[in-house]
Amino acid sequence: MPTSDTLVSTEWLAAHLEDPDLRVVDSSIYLERNPNGFGYLYESGRAKWAESHIPGAQFLDLVDELSDTRGQVRFMMPAPERFAEALGRHGIGDGHQIVVYTTGMVMWATRLWWMLRSVGCRNVAVLDGGFAKWTAEGRPVTAEIRRYPATRFTARPEPRRWADKAEMLATIGNAEVCTINALSPETYNGTLNTYGRPGHIPDSHNVFYGDLLDPVTGAFKPVAELRPKFEAIGAFAKPRVVVYCGGGISATMDAMALTLAGHPDIAIYDGSMGEWVLDPALPLALGDTP
């Protein structure tokens, strides 16, 4: 079957839904602001998947099964071997075309897409427009759960796709790296204190993930509209781009847009603000400029 490594349309998925090498995945998570403090509360989308999903779709849980749950920061990338074992248990293996979607915010689909790319998987794409576009077009859904036999998924880690706290600190004042904050302008400039310490990592630019999608269809905007957003901050004048957000989730939407626009060297700061704010010695800047 033809393969894709970025986005597939609802038309493409409908045409290939019965291909034996296709694996469709729902990675939905729902979040809301924590009413008793900073950050967010998370709920797995498994229950809604069980009620209605694209035929053949499996549910992969980023809350625990596909995340490292041992530290203070949520949703960190697990060890590649553990990640590969989990995929294999779900019948996702070498040679399969994987299509990821969500019933809510697309960031959870792009997060899994980036995780898969970081272990060398190229046949993985996000359903552009997600479940909302699929159902709006009257395409089929089901509550029937399809099981696939366990198989082998081979992880080929590409560590350069991730940045850690030390690299982020080194980006401050580094003319070779463009650092991007994917959060809302209010969070970036410090007006909104979401993570316990307001502001952004010094020298980082703001490209809000919400500005990357068509407000009507929920699909990514055309490359002709996406690329200028990043050219305006000098991203394509730098050999490397590192993107962060609150927890390494919405940053992957910027990473998708940058990939579509053709940037060759992109990384996600996995710990993002959730990790950065825990160390009071690490600097934060306020205001609308880097």
Brief digest:
The protein is α/β, with parallel strands linked by helices. It has helices spanning 10-16, 46-51, 80-89, 107-118, 130-136, 165-171, 185-189, 223-231, 251-261, 272-276, and strands spanning 7-8, 22-26, 29-33, 40-44, 58-59, 97-101, 124-127, 162-163, 177-181, 204-206, 240-244, 266-269.
Silhouette: globular
Estimate the mean pLDDT confidence: 96
Tally of structural domains? 2
Which segments are poorly predicted (pLDDT under 50) over 5 or more consecutive residues?
A: none
Helix/strand-derived class? Answer: alpha/beta
**What is the CA-CA span between the terminal residues?**
45 Å
Please state roughly what percent of the residues sit in beta strands, choosing from under 5%, 5-15%, 15-25%, 25-35%, 35-45% or over 45%: 15-25%
CATH superfamily grouping of the largest domain: Rhodanese-like domain
Q: Tally the helices.
A: 10
How many DSSP E strands? 12
Name the strands of the widest sheet in spatial order: 1-7-6-2-5
List keywords for this structure.
single chain; 290 residues; alpha/beta; 27% helix; Oxidized Rhodanese, domain 1; 5-stranded parallel sheet; 2 domains; 10 helices
